[in-house]
Design a protein that fits this description.
Keywords: Carbohydrate metabolism, Cellulose degradation, Glycosidase, Hydrolase, Polysaccharide degradation, Signal
Organism: Lasiosphaeris hirsuta
Protein name: CBM1 domain-containing protein
CATH superfamily of the largest domain: YVTN repeat-like/Quinoprotein amine dehydrogenase
Pfam family, one: CBM_1
Number of strands: 62
Strand content: 25-35%
CATH architecture of the largest domain: 7 Propeller
Bound molecules: 2-acetamido-2-deoxy-beta-D-glucopyranose
GO cellular component, one term: extracellular region
CATH class of the largest domain: Mainly Beta
Radius of gyration: 27 Å
Strand order of the largest sheet: 28-32-31-30-29
Distance between the termini: 38 Å
């Protein structure tokens, strides 16, 4: 272990530089979450955007990487701005981009949605608030782009709302919107009436202009609108520039534009139909039939250079894998990206490169038969390059630059092309002094270890595995043995505690845990002999020397917990406004009466990494500090930072330790740093958005002076480094900027040519709808509940999980709704 002298000196090490810290992502790479839509500019080569459901909007760079462009909008107050329900480009101006922002249409998101508009490819934005909510993370978020700019008139923008709010139109370039009263279908489909999440009308699913149609009064005359409606009609058309609308005649009814469900998790049956706009006929071009058709369709990309050439993807084919189909004759014939060989062998007509995110291979692709992904709704062929294509899954973005090789040698090179998309939902962070530089517990993708600071720019080779849980909810280290790490998983059915003795590189299941307890937070005693676990569902539990976890009677469920980092016998806990201390290695806790005067709830406890007696508590009333093992507290930072959330120590200048706290200070609800025990606080967040500060995790580096990590709920881990000076006024920001700011980086290599949108500039447009949702042989009916089996070899039951759970393959024989 590295020896860090304990010093209480307050040092102002560097000349004050009055600039905010610059933040960039820890490079986990590979996305790590769902991408609901990708939109290419029709004529400006290389201009494209990818939207995520909780991690904002990204712009494509010439080197296949992506740059986040909506971070500045995701303030604490407007955290829902990282939910992107639709993105649109302006065919006539490649610098312009529009996005419909807002995360939930229920009461989870307090704000109305906005239409954000940018004239510099997302570097800066203006927003217009809508009179209702937008649901970037609601069901049906991948059905298409429900926001579109008229390709012949940049002032005209349509937005298809959720929640029964109908179609809206702007005639001033997105500054104001008014309801289109002539469009009466509101997209009434509700997955589960009465359900808090699934109980809302999904609304309109896409808007697309026929750029070949006549221009009427300066506007494109023919416009198609899709609706979440499998009863009346799901595709409407106007031929008079939006004055009147009719259901497109002859459309296959009873289905959504795509699938028998609206995605992204469901779909057991579907079809693909081609609508010929010249004579108004529909043709069923579904690429599978009979027992081979056991899935619905999601992504569909058309080649704008070669009319009649397209690629379609299954939305959710959980076993053995997704399938992708390609046609060069408008869907008359199709070929597949893989076929069965000598069963169970498969012939893969593709190579798959994962070096941009090796952990995707280690943790997912190599683990079961699914390679090509799931939840495939975004699939686009570059409108100016028939070889360049991208498709997105529930995990990452795949793509390549040799798509037409499918037609010649029937073999394409797929790569993970999600570099720069960082959408991890971070659950817990740790940076042990003298240990691994960063441990990140995340949702959906287990977690990651970065051994040293120099690794932060390199995607990990592996997620946390053996055991690998879908979601890790917390991680902690033992203060006196920083190579000893403990983490917690969130999947009942097996032990959800794992320990590492090598700094989080290799792991062992802790069999002291039961198989029904899961989730919550964890604290490791200083000498690594005792684990205290505040579980999600089984109260606070304790295990010493591998003994069976047993309830800690003196603590309420969901208590906030922490271990003293130097003294193995001491633990802290809090629930409500009460503070508890244990001096017998968490066997029992005693309430310290009056410890946190005035506080009504405790948010976090941070024990000093080096000073045994020092512990800080973050509460609704701000921070409290104890220097006597929690026996007595004094309020700290009063009048300077209040309503604090997560807090952390981090190595500061010289051998001092800084404090980092999310809370409300002079600059608003943000991240602040103090180098003088809370006497003064500097705003170290600056203009970087971290979303809701209550959802953020923060940890100061235990090893690199001035380095801070912030874990977000959907935008991965950020880090920055600077010098925080003590003294001065509360509002003084004294920080040295050392990193580049990702969100405002513009890519000079982008070329700007121009133009058009969707499939409608071709003679025929291909519209995704579904056929009968009959009982397919290979899939069961109904929806599997949380924790239920949902797949595996020979599985006959449902492969769709009740939202929001995902069917995750555990091995070839077992998949579970997690
Ligand atoms: C519409 O879709 C839902 C979800 O798949 C299904 O339960 C319902 O039966 C469908 N309705 C019709 C008329 O097909
Ligand atoms: C419509 O046009 C397509 C060719 O684009 C043709 O195959 C089809 O037969 C036509 N249908 C009718 C009813 O004319
Ligand atoms: C397609 O190419 C990849 C990469 O070269 C190769 O691994 C794979 O075997 C090829 N597929 C077939 C069916 O030959
Ligand atoms: C550790 O804490 C216990 C309980 O408060 C105390 O009795 C003991 O002296 C402490 N040990 C050290 C080395 O400070």
């Amino acid at each position: 272990m590295k020896c860090l002298p304990v010093a209480r000196l307050l040092l102002a090490a560097a000349a004050p530089i009055r600039a905010a810290l610059s933040w960039r992502n820890v490079n986990i790479g590979g996305g790590g979450g769902f991408v609901g839509g990708i939109v290419f500019h029709p004529t400006a080569k290389g201009v494209a955007y990818a939207r995520t459901d909780i991690g904002g909007l990204y712009r494509l760079n010439a080197d296949d990487s992506w740059t986040a462009v909506t971070d500045s909008l995701a303030t604490n107050e407007k955290w829902g701005s990282w939910g992107v329900d639709a993105v649109a480009i302006d065919a006539q101006d490649s610098t312009k981009v529009y996005a419909a922002l807002g995360m939930y249409t229920n009461d989870w998101d307090p704000n109305h949605g906005v239409i954000a508009r940018s004239s510099d490819k997302g570097a800066t934005w203006s927003t217009t608030e809508l009179p209702f909510k937008v649901g970037g993370n609601m069901p049906g978020r991948g059905m298409g782009e429900r926001l579109a700019v008229d390709p012949k008139n940049s002032k005209i923008i349509y937005f298809g709302a959720r929640s029964g709010n109908g179609l809206w139109k702007s005639v001033d370039g997105g500054v104001t919107f008014a309801k289109v009263s002539s469009f009466t279908n509101t997209g009434p489909y509700i997955v589960t009436p009465g359900d808090s999440y699934n109980g809302d009308k999904q609304g309109l699913s896409f808007i697309t202009f026929d750029s070949t149609s006549a221009v009427a009064n300066g506007a494109t005359s023919r416009i198609f609108v899709g609706t979440a409606d499998n009863v009346t009609a799901s595709v409407y058309v106007s031929t008079d520039a939006g004055s009147s609308w009719t259901a497109v005649p002859g459309q296959p009814k009873s289905y959504f534009p795509h699938n028998d469900g609206t995605g992204p998790y469901d779909g057991t049956m579907g079809g693909i139909y081609r609508y010929d706009m010249t004579n108004g006929t529909w043709k069923n071009i579904t690429p599978a039939s009979g027992s081979d058709l056991y899935f619905g369709f999601g992504g569909l990309g058309v080649d704008m250079v070669k009319p009649g050439t397209l690629v379609a993807a299954t939305l959710n084919s959980w076993w053995p894998d997704a399938q992708l189909f390609r046609s060069t004759d408008s869907g008359t014939t199709w070929s597949k990206i893989w076929e069965w060989g000598n069963y169970p062998a498969q012939n893969w007509y593709y190579g798959l490169r994962t070096e941009n995110a090796p952990w995707v291979d280690a943790g997912f692709i190599s683990q079961d038969s699914k390679r090509l992904g799931w939840m495939i709704e975004a699939l686009e062929i570059d409108p100016l390059d028939s070889n360049h294509w991208l498709y997105a899954t529930g995990l990452t973005v795949f793509g390549g630059h040799d798509l037409t090789s499918w037609d010649t040698v029937h073999n394409v090179s797929l790569s993970i092309l999600a570099k720069g998309i960082e959408e991890m939902a971070v659950q817990g962070l740790a940076s042990p002094p003298g240990g691994s530089e960063l441990l990140a517990a995340v949702g959906d993708d287990s977690g990651f270890t970065f051994k040293s600071s120099s690794d932060l720019g390199t995607p990990p080779k592996s997620p946390w595995m053996t055991p690998m849980w879908t979601t890790s909810t917390d991680v902690d280290y033992a203060g006196n043995k920083p190579a000893s790490i403990v983490r917690i998983g969130n999947s009942a059915g097996s032990q959800q505690v794992a320990v590492s003795a090598d700094g989080g590189v290799s792991w062992n299941i802790n069999y002291a845990a039961g198989t029904t307890q899961y989730g919550g937070t964890v604290a490791y005693s200083a000498d690594a002999d005792t684990i205290l676990w505040s579980s999600s569902n089984a109260g606070v539990l304790r295990s010493q020397q591998q003994s069976t976890f047993s309830a800690v009677a003196s603590l309420p469920s969901s208590a906030v917990i922490a271990a003293n980092k130097r003294n193995n016998t001491v633990f802290y806990a809090s629930a409500g406004a009460a503070f508890y201390r244990s001096t017998n290695t968490a066997s029992s806790f005693t309430a310290i009466t009056g410890a946190l005067a005035g506080a009504t709830s405790v948010r976090d406890i941070a024990a000093h990494p080096q000073v045994a007696g020092e512990v800080w508590v973050s509460t609704s009333s701000g921070l409290f500090r104890s220097t006597d093992y929690g026996a007595t507290f004094s309020s700290a930072g009063v009048g300077k930072i209040s309503d604090t959330q997560q807090i952390s120590f981090g190595l500061g200048s010289g051998s001092t330790w800084n404090l980092y706290a999310f809370g409300t200070g002079a600059g608003g609800a943000k991240l602040y740093a103090s180098a003088d025990n809370g006497a003064t606080w500097a705003d170290v967040q600056g203009s970087q958005g971290f979303g809701s500060i209550a959802a953020c995790r923060v940890v100061g580096s235990g090893n690199v002076a001035g380095q801070i990590y912030v874990g977000t709920n959907g935008r991965g881990v950020f880090y920055a480094k600077g010098v925080v000076s003590g003294g001065g006024s509360a509002t003084t920001t004294l920080v040295t900027s050392t990193t580049a700011k990702a969100t405002t980086t513009t890519t000079t290599t982008m070329t700007t040519t121009t133009s058009a949108v969707v499939t409608t500039s071709m003679p025929a447009t291909t519209v995704k709808t579904t056929t009968t949702s009959s009982s397919a042989a290979a899939t069961g009916t109904g929806t599997a509940q949380h924790w239920s089996q949902c797949g595996g070899v020979g599985w006959q039951g449902s492969t769709a999980c009740v939202v929001p759970y995902e069917c995750k393959s555990q091995n070839d024989y077992y998949a579970q709704c997690l």
